[in-house]
Specification:
alpha/beta; 9% strand
Protein backbone atom coordinates (compact mmCIF):
# COMPACT_ATOMS: atom_id res chain seq x y z
CA UNK A 1 0.00 0.00 0.00
CA UNK A 2 1.22 3.49 -0.89
CA UNK A 3 0.41 6.83 0.73
CA UNK A 4 -0.87 9.67 -1.45
CA UNK A 5 0.97 13.01 -0.97
CA UNK A 6 -1.04 15.92 -2.34
CA UNK A 7 -0.14 19.04 -0.33
CA UNK A 8 2.91 21.12 0.47
CA UNK A 9 2.51 20.27 4.13
CA UNK A 10 2.37 16.51 3.59
CA UNK A 11 5.40 16.60 1.28
CA UNK A 12 7.41 18.55 3.87
CA UNK A 13 6.43 16.02 6.53
CA UNK A 14 7.54 13.20 4.25
CA UNK A 15 10.91 14.89 3.72
CA UNK A 16 11.34 15.19 7.49
CA UNK A 17 10.53 11.51 7.87
CA UNK A 18 13.11 10.51 5.23
CA UNK A 19 15.84 12.83 6.51
CA UNK A 20 17.91 10.03 8.06
CA UNK A 21 17.50 7.56 5.19
CA UNK A 22 20.71 6.86 3.29
CA UNK A 23 18.89 5.09 0.43
CA UNK A 24 15.72 6.30 -1.26
CA UNK A 25 14.15 4.69 -4.31
CA UNK A 26 12.51 6.99 -6.82
CA UNK A 27 10.66 6.89 -10.12
CA UNK A 28 8.64 9.41 -12.13
CA UNK A 29 5.66 9.34 -14.45
CA UNK A 30 5.39 12.03 -17.09
CA UNK A 31 3.99 12.71 -20.55
CA UNK A 32 5.65 14.43 -23.50
CA UNK A 33 3.76 12.97 -26.48
CA UNK A 34 2.39 16.27 -27.76
CA UNK A 35 4.71 18.76 -26.07
CA UNK A 36 8.34 19.84 -26.28
CA UNK A 37 8.80 19.87 -22.53
CA UNK A 38 7.97 16.81 -20.40
CA UNK A 39 4.90 17.18 -18.20
CA UNK A 40 5.73 15.66 -14.82
CA UNK A 41 2.65 14.01 -13.32
CA UNK A 42 3.74 11.80 -10.43
CA UNK A 43 6.79 10.97 -8.31
CA UNK A 44 7.04 7.59 -6.58
CA UNK A 45 9.22 7.24 -3.49
CA UNK A 46 10.16 4.31 -1.26
CA UNK A 47 12.36 3.85 1.78
CA UNK A 48 12.33 0.09 1.28
CA UNK A 49 9.37 -0.61 3.54
CA UNK A 50 6.90 2.22 2.99
CA UNK A 51 5.97 3.88 -0.29
CA UNK A 52 4.54 7.26 -1.29
CA UNK A 53 3.04 8.72 -4.45
CA UNK A 54 3.60 12.46 -4.78
CA UNK A 55 0.91 14.26 -6.77
CA UNK A 56 2.97 17.02 -8.39
CA UNK A 57 -0.17 18.57 -9.86
CA UNK A 58 -1.25 19.58 -6.33
CA UNK A 59 2.10 20.71 -4.88
CA UNK A 60 3.86 24.03 -5.37
CA UNK A 61 6.75 24.00 -2.85
CA UNK A 62 9.69 21.67 -3.40
CA UNK A 63 12.55 23.20 -1.40
CA UNK A 64 12.58 20.44 1.23
CA UNK A 65 12.26 17.78 -1.46
CA UNK A 66 15.15 19.27 -3.42
CA UNK A 67 17.33 19.29 -0.29
CA UNK A 68 16.39 15.67 0.39
CA UNK A 69 17.32 14.38 -3.07
CA UNK A 70 20.41 16.55 -3.51
CA UNK A 71 22.02 15.67 -0.18
CA UNK A 72 25.51 14.19 -0.78
CA UNK A 73 24.90 11.87 2.18
CA UNK A 74 22.09 10.09 0.35
CA UNK A 75 21.89 7.76 -2.67
CA UNK A 76 18.84 7.72 -4.93
CA UNK A 77 17.98 4.39 -6.56
CA UNK A 78 16.52 4.54 -10.08
CA UNK A 79 16.02 2.12 -12.94
CA UNK A 80 17.11 3.63 -16.29
CA UNK A 81 17.49 7.09 -14.80
CA UNK A 82 18.18 9.13 -17.96
CA UNK A 83 14.66 10.46 -18.51
CA UNK A 84 13.97 10.76 -14.78
CA UNK A 85 17.07 12.93 -14.34
CA UNK A 86 16.03 15.08 -17.29
CA UNK A 87 12.45 15.63 -16.12
CA UNK A 88 13.46 16.34 -12.50
CA UNK A 89 16.03 18.86 -13.68
CA UNK A 90 13.70 20.63 -16.09
CA UNK A 91 10.56 20.61 -13.97
CA UNK A 92 11.85 21.01 -10.41
CA UNK A 93 15.51 21.99 -10.82
CA UNK A 94 16.51 18.89 -8.87
CA UNK A 95 19.80 17.13 -9.65
CA UNK A 96 20.66 14.22 -7.30
CA UNK A 97 24.47 13.92 -6.99
CA UNK A 98 24.48 10.26 -5.92
CA UNK A 99 22.57 7.81 -8.09
CA UNK A 100 22.44 4.02 -8.23
CA UNK A 101 20.94 2.87 -11.53
CA UNK A 102 19.78 -0.74 -11.46
CA UNK A 103 19.75 -1.03 -15.25
CA UNK A 104 23.39 0.06 -15.61
CA UNK A 105 24.38 -2.06 -12.61
CA UNK A 106 22.77 -5.10 -14.26
CA UNK A 107 24.98 -4.59 -17.30
CA UNK A 108 28.17 -4.53 -15.23
CA UNK A 109 26.93 -7.61 -13.35
CA UNK A 110 26.61 -9.36 -16.75
CA UNK A 111 22.88 -9.86 -16.38
CA UNK A 112 22.15 -8.09 -19.65
CA UNK A 113 22.44 -4.77 -21.45
CA UNK A 114 19.59 -2.27 -21.13
CA UNK A 115 17.36 -4.79 -19.35
CA UNK A 116 13.86 -3.50 -18.59
CA UNK A 117 12.71 -3.15 -15.00
CA UNK A 118 10.09 -5.90 -15.14
CA UNK A 119 12.49 -8.34 -16.78
CA UNK A 120 15.31 -7.58 -14.34
CA UNK A 121 12.96 -8.03 -11.41
CA UNK A 122 11.86 -11.38 -12.77
CA UNK A 123 15.47 -12.54 -13.34
CA UNK A 124 16.76 -11.55 -9.89
CA UNK A 125 13.74 -12.06 -7.64
CA UNK A 126 11.21 -14.11 -9.64
CA UNK A 127 8.67 -11.32 -9.02
CA UNK A 128 6.39 -10.53 -11.95
CA UNK A 129 4.67 -7.16 -12.33
CA UNK A 130 2.09 -5.77 -14.75
CA UNK A 131 3.48 -3.09 -17.12
CA UNK A 132 0.34 -2.44 -19.17
CA UNK A 133 -0.18 1.12 -17.87
CA UNK A 134 3.09 2.48 -19.28
CA UNK A 135 1.37 4.67 -21.89
CA UNK A 136 -1.65 5.70 -19.86
CA UNK A 137 -2.65 9.30 -19.09
CA UNK A 138 -0.70 10.14 -15.93
CA UNK A 139 -2.06 13.68 -15.89
CA UNK A 140 -5.60 12.41 -15.31
CA UNK A 141 -7.11 12.74 -11.85
CA UNK A 142 -8.15 10.66 -10.10
CA UNK A 143 -5.73 7.94 -11.20
CA UNK A 144 -7.24 4.50 -11.62
CA UNK A 145 -6.47 1.63 -9.25
CA UNK A 146 -4.43 -0.01 -12.01
CA UNK A 147 -2.40 3.16 -12.51
CA UNK A 148 -1.75 3.47 -8.80
CA UNK A 149 -0.64 -0.16 -8.58
CA UNK A 150 1.60 0.24 -11.62
CA UNK A 151 3.21 3.37 -10.16
CA UNK A 152 3.75 1.65 -6.83
CA UNK A 153 5.29 -1.44 -8.45
CA UNK A 154 7.84 0.70 -10.26
CA UNK A 155 9.46 1.74 -6.97
CA UNK A 156 8.70 -0.79 -4.22
CA UNK A 157 11.24 -3.37 -5.42
CA UNK A 158 14.17 -1.05 -6.15
CA UNK A 159 15.75 -1.49 -2.71
CA UNK A 160 15.77 -5.25 -3.19
CA UNK A 161 17.38 -4.91 -6.63
CA UNK A 162 19.92 -2.49 -5.16
CA UNK A 163 20.88 -5.02 -2.49
CA UNK A 164 21.33 -7.91 -4.94
CA UNK A 165 23.20 -5.85 -7.54
CA UNK A 166 25.46 -4.14 -5.00
CA UNK A 167 26.60 -7.55 -3.79
CA UNK A 168 27.28 -8.72 -7.34
CA UNK A 169 29.26 -5.58 -8.20
CA UNK A 170 31.31 -5.86 -5.00
CA UNK A 171 32.15 -9.48 -5.84
CA UNK A 172 33.33 -8.32 -9.27
CA UNK A 173 35.07 -5.17 -7.91
CA UNK A 174 32.99 -2.99 -10.24
CA UNK A 175 31.30 -0.51 -7.90
CA UNK A 176 33.55 2.29 -9.18
CA UNK A 177 32.65 1.34 -12.76
CA UNK A 178 29.01 2.03 -11.99
CA UNK A 179 29.75 5.41 -10.43
CA UNK A 180 31.79 6.50 -13.46
CA UNK A 181 29.13 5.30 -15.88
CA UNK A 182 26.32 7.13 -14.11
CA UNK A 183 28.33 10.34 -14.09
CA UNK A 184 28.90 9.97 -17.84
CA UNK A 185 25.17 9.43 -18.33
CA UNK A 186 24.27 12.51 -16.27
CA UNK A 187 26.79 14.57 -18.26
CA UNK A 188 25.22 13.32 -21.50
CA UNK A 189 21.74 14.29 -20.29
CA UNK A 190 22.89 17.83 -19.54
CA UNK A 191 24.81 18.07 -22.83
CA UNK A 192 21.57 17.40 -24.70
CA UNK A 193 20.40 20.79 -23.46
CA UNK A 194 23.07 22.41 -25.67
CA UNK A 195 20.81 23.44 -28.56
CA UNK A 196 23.78 24.73 -30.58
CA UNK A 197 24.85 21.15 -31.24
CA UNK A 198 21.52 19.62 -32.28
CA UNK A 199 22.41 19.87 -35.98
CA UNK A 200 25.11 17.25 -35.40
CA UNK A 201 22.36 14.73 -34.58
CA UNK A 202 20.53 15.11 -37.90
CA UNK A 203 20.88 11.88 -39.86
CA UNK A 204 22.49 12.35 -43.27
CA UNK A 205 24.14 15.68 -42.45
CA UNK A 206 27.57 14.25 -43.39
CA UNK A 207 26.75 14.73 -47.08
CA UNK A 208 26.34 18.51 -46.77
CA UNK A 209 28.97 21.04 -47.81
CA UNK A 210 30.20 23.70 -45.39
CA UNK A 211 27.65 26.33 -46.39
CA UNK A 212 24.77 23.85 -46.08
CA UNK A 213 26.01 22.75 -42.67
CA UNK A 214 25.83 26.38 -41.51
CA UNK A 215 22.33 26.51 -42.91
CA UNK A 216 21.33 23.30 -41.13
CA UNK A 217 22.59 24.67 -37.83
CA UNK A 218 20.65 27.91 -38.29
CA UNK A 219 17.45 26.07 -39.23
CA UNK A 220 17.81 23.74 -36.22
CA UNK A 221 18.17 26.75 -33.92
CA UNK A 222 15.14 28.42 -35.51
CA UNK A 223 13.03 25.28 -35.02
CA UNK A 224 14.33 24.82 -31.46
CA UNK A 225 13.26 28.33 -30.46
CA UNK A 226 9.83 27.86 -32.03
CA UNK A 227 9.33 24.42 -30.48
CA UNK A 228 10.12 25.79 -27.03
CA UNK A 229 7.92 28.86 -27.56
CA UNK A 230 4.94 26.76 -28.70
CA UNK A 231 5.77 23.79 -26.43
CA UNK A 232 5.49 21.40 -29.36
CA UNK A 233 7.75 18.49 -30.35
CA UNK A 234 10.40 19.42 -32.92
CA UNK A 235 8.98 17.00 -35.47
CA UNK A 236 5.52 18.57 -35.20
CA UNK A 237 7.02 21.78 -36.60
CA UNK A 238 9.38 20.36 -39.23
CA UNK A 239 11.02 16.95 -39.23
CA UNK A 240 14.79 16.51 -39.39
CA UNK A 241 14.79 15.22 -42.97
CA UNK A 242 12.95 18.37 -44.13
CA UNK A 243 15.54 20.63 -42.47
CA UNK A 244 18.25 18.53 -44.14
CA UNK A 245 16.62 18.98 -47.53
CA UNK A 246 16.24 22.73 -46.98
CA UNK A 247 19.89 23.03 -45.96
CA UNK A 248 21.01 21.02 -48.99
CA UNK A 249 18.98 23.05 -51.49
CA UNK A 250 19.04 26.44 -49.72
CA UNK A 251 16.05 27.77 -51.72
CA UNK A 252 16.39 31.53 -52.39
CA UNK A 253 12.66 32.35 -52.29
CA UNK A 254 9.26 30.94 -51.36
CA UNK A 255 8.62 29.81 -54.94
CA UNK A 256 11.68 27.54 -54.72
CA UNK A 257 10.21 25.90 -51.61
CA UNK A 258 7.87 23.99 -53.94
CA UNK A 259 10.71 21.64 -54.86
CA UNK A 260 11.61 20.74 -51.26
CA UNK A 261 10.58 17.16 -50.50
CA UNK A 262 8.49 16.66 -47.37
CA UNK A 263 7.58 20.33 -46.94
CA UNK A 264 3.80 20.31 -46.69
CA UNK A 265 1.57 22.99 -48.21
CA UNK A 266 0.60 24.12 -44.73
CA UNK A 267 4.28 24.36 -43.70
CA UNK A 268 5.08 26.53 -46.72
CA UNK A 269 2.19 28.84 -45.86
CA UNK A 270 2.96 29.09 -42.12
CA UNK A 271 6.77 28.98 -42.11
CA UNK A 272 7.76 29.86 -45.69
CA UNK A 273 8.76 33.49 -45.15
CA UNK A 274 10.63 32.64 -41.91
CA UNK A 275 12.54 29.82 -43.58
CA UNK A 276 13.64 31.99 -46.48
CA UNK A 277 14.67 34.74 -44.04
CA UNK A 278 16.79 32.29 -42.05
CA UNK A 279 18.40 30.85 -45.17
CA UNK A 280 19.21 34.33 -46.51
CA UNK A 281 21.28 35.07 -43.40
CA UNK A 282 23.50 31.98 -43.57
CA UNK A 283 26.30 33.81 -45.38
CA UNK A 284 26.72 36.07 -42.33
CA UNK A 285 27.15 33.18 -39.90
CA UNK A 286 30.53 32.15 -38.54
CA UNK A 287 32.01 28.96 -39.98
CA UNK A 288 31.14 25.72 -38.21
CA UNK A 289 33.31 22.60 -37.97
CA UNK A 290 32.66 20.10 -40.75
CA UNK A 291 30.60 17.07 -39.79
CA UNK A 292 32.65 13.84 -39.74
CA UNK A 293 32.24 11.82 -42.93
CA UNK A 294 31.47 8.09 -42.90
CA UNK A 295 34.52 5.93 -42.26
CA UNK A 296 36.45 4.59 -45.24
CA UNK A 297 36.09 1.06 -46.64
CA UNK A 298 39.39 0.09 -45.05
CA UNK A 299 38.18 1.33 -41.66
CA UNK A 300 34.85 -0.44 -42.17
CA UNK A 301 36.76 -3.69 -42.64
CA UNK A 302 38.81 -2.95 -39.53
CA UNK A 303 35.56 -2.23 -37.68
CA UNK A 304 34.46 -5.84 -38.28
CA UNK A 305 37.76 -7.14 -36.89
CA UNK A 306 37.49 -4.87 -33.85
CA UNK A 307 33.94 -5.99 -33.18
CA UNK A 308 35.04 -9.61 -33.09
CA UNK A 309 37.85 -8.66 -30.72
CA UNK A 310 35.39 -6.76 -28.51
CA UNK A 311 33.20 -9.86 -28.27
CA UNK A 312 36.24 -11.77 -27.02
CA UNK A 313 36.98 -9.05 -24.46
CA UNK A 314 33.35 -9.08 -23.30
CA UNK A 315 33.42 -12.87 -22.89
CA UNK A 316 36.68 -12.69 -20.98
CA UNK A 317 35.46 -9.94 -18.66
CA UNK A 318 31.92 -11.38 -18.29
CA UNK A 319 30.28 -8.26 -19.66
CA UNK A 320 27.64 -7.55 -22.31
CA UNK A 321 29.63 -6.42 -25.34
CA UNK A 322 27.46 -3.28 -25.59
CA UNK A 323 28.93 -2.06 -22.28
CA UNK A 324 32.41 -1.78 -23.75
CA UNK A 325 32.10 0.89 -26.43
CA UNK A 326 29.47 2.44 -28.70
CA UNK A 327 29.52 2.32 -32.49
CA UNK A 328 29.89 6.10 -32.55
CA UNK A 329 32.95 5.95 -30.29
CA UNK A 330 34.51 3.19 -32.37
CA UNK A 331 33.94 5.18 -35.57
CA UNK A 332 35.59 8.23 -33.98
CA UNK A 333 38.69 6.20 -33.19
CA UNK A 334 38.87 4.69 -36.66
CA UNK A 335 38.28 8.02 -38.37
CA UNK A 336 41.11 9.58 -36.36
CA UNK A 337 43.39 6.65 -37.26
CA UNK A 338 42.89 7.49 -40.94
CA UNK A 339 44.59 10.80 -40.21
CA UNK A 340 47.48 9.01 -38.44
CA UNK A 341 46.68 10.68 -35.13
CA UNK A 342 44.57 8.53 -32.84
CA UNK A 343 41.95 10.33 -30.78
CA UNK A 344 40.15 8.60 -27.95
CA UNK A 345 36.62 9.36 -26.74
CA UNK A 346 36.78 10.50 -23.08
CA UNK A 347 35.09 7.34 -21.74
CA UNK A 348 37.57 5.08 -23.53
CA UNK A 349 40.63 7.06 -22.48
CA UNK A 350 40.13 6.67 -18.73
CA UNK A 351 38.80 4.43 -16.00
CA UNK A 352 38.21 0.73 -16.52
CA UNK A 353 37.77 1.14 -20.27
CA UNK A 354 41.17 2.81 -20.44
CA UNK A 355 42.63 -0.28 -18.77
CA UNK A 356 40.66 -2.99 -20.59
CA UNK A 357 39.27 -1.71 -23.88
CA UNK A 358 41.75 0.92 -25.08
CA UNK A 359 44.89 -1.30 -25.06
CA UNK A 360 43.15 -4.02 -27.11
CA UNK A 361 41.93 -1.55 -29.72
CA UNK A 362 45.32 0.15 -29.88
CA UNK A 363 47.09 -3.18 -30.29
CA UNK A 364 44.83 -4.22 -33.15
CA UNK A 365 44.99 -0.88 -34.97
CA UNK A 366 48.79 -0.70 -34.59
CA UNK A 367 49.26 -4.31 -35.64
CA UNK A 368 47.10 -4.04 -38.74
CA UNK A 369 48.62 -0.71 -39.65
CA UNK A 370 52.12 -2.14 -39.65
CA UNK A 371 51.23 -5.33 -41.53
Amino acid sequence: MSYWISSNESLNKLCDRLENEKLIALDTEFIRTDTFFPKLALIQISDGSKHWLVDVLSITQYDAFKNLLESPARTIIFHACGEDVEVLDHTLNINPPNIFDTQIAAGFANIGYSVGYARLLEILTDIRIDKRETRSNWLARPLSERQLKYAENDVIHLHELHKVLTKKLEELSRASWLADEIQDLINAVHQRKDVDLYYLRVKGSQRLNNQSIKCLKRLCLWREALARQLDRPRGRILEDFVLLELADRMPPNTVALESVDGLRTRDKKVYGDELISEISQVSKDAPVPSIPKPISRASASLMKILRKALIDIADRESLPVECLITKKELEMILRSSEGNKLQWPPRIDRGWRGEIVKPEILKLISGLGSS
